[in-house]
Amino acid sequence: ITTTTALSSNLHSFLMRHHQQLTPTEVLTLFLMNEKLRGLDSEWRFFIDSLPAAYTTPVYLGSKLLAQLPEAMCRKAEAQVSRIRSTFIRLHILLKRASLGDLKLLSLSENFTWHLFVWAWTAVNTRCIFSKHRTGHSLWVDDYCALAPFLDCLNHHWKADVETAVVGSYFEIVTNNDYEPNDQVFISYGSHDNKKLLLEYGFVLADNPNDVVAITKGHLHKLNLQQKDVVLHFASKLSFLEEKDIISDTCGFTVDGLTWNGKIVVQVLSHPKASRLVWNNLLFRCGEQELDHQQIQLVVTLIQVMLCDYSTPLPDGKDWCSQTVAAFIKEETKVLKRQLYIYTRKTLSCG
């Protein structure tokens, strides 16, 4: 299902008139909504019936569950929901105006509800595939997405090694992994951490090797309050780290330990000199030196600060949304507690 498919539907004239105001994913969203409303008259009804009735992405979580996420993750999720709501309002207004002179749009315009829109938007954004080659109509220069019934049922795993190609009117997936009969066949969405998986797809993976529990500015401010005697010239150092883009979603703790940029954060914060030249040299020497005893103690305190993000009780609901949020929190805390144990032992061996 591509934008070409949508242009072949009763939305054709509307899409032709307003294509400059629409993205390819918005076109697919409107197409799904329209086909859902057509019910038994839709040739895509079997595909639509195979789609989940609801999802576990942030827009489905609700404010109570969002508030239980770590602060930085909560802000990202709320920003995503806000963008979706803005898209809903914009498309609703566009359709309402267009339907005044187009009876074919009347059903979609009158039934353009938040519930239906969110369902279609999430279906498209969690299940669409992206090709290196144009998949849809030339009206959109960035038209590389499509919905592929059946193929969208394949789940993600970080070990999956696949090759994809558009062959005529088909989307082909070839796996390079070995499978036994009755094994589940996986595809890979990319090397995503659990934050990305939850935000974009609504699930998390246990023991995800790509997972990074990120160090944020907020964590460093709290660390500074506890370690004023250790973290000298904090404001200047924080400014330096931000200018160099060291503090990012990839800066933090993985199951294997502190990331390279996380190590730079610790080395800069613990350095006694107020010299940007010295701090800059640390960027090029990362990995050459092991953390000393004082720096390891700083790491321990930092982890303890980060664990405070997860001090509220886990969601205990039996619904999928509650379980997904609980799983995310469990995986993040599991990484941090493992690293707290490892670095605490290091302080004892260095002492």
TrEMBL record:
It comes from the Eukaryota. This is Putative set domain-containing protein. CDD domains: SET_SETD4. Signal peptide: none annotated. It comes from Amblyomma aureolatum. One of its GO terms (molecular function) is protein-lysine N-methyltransferase activity.
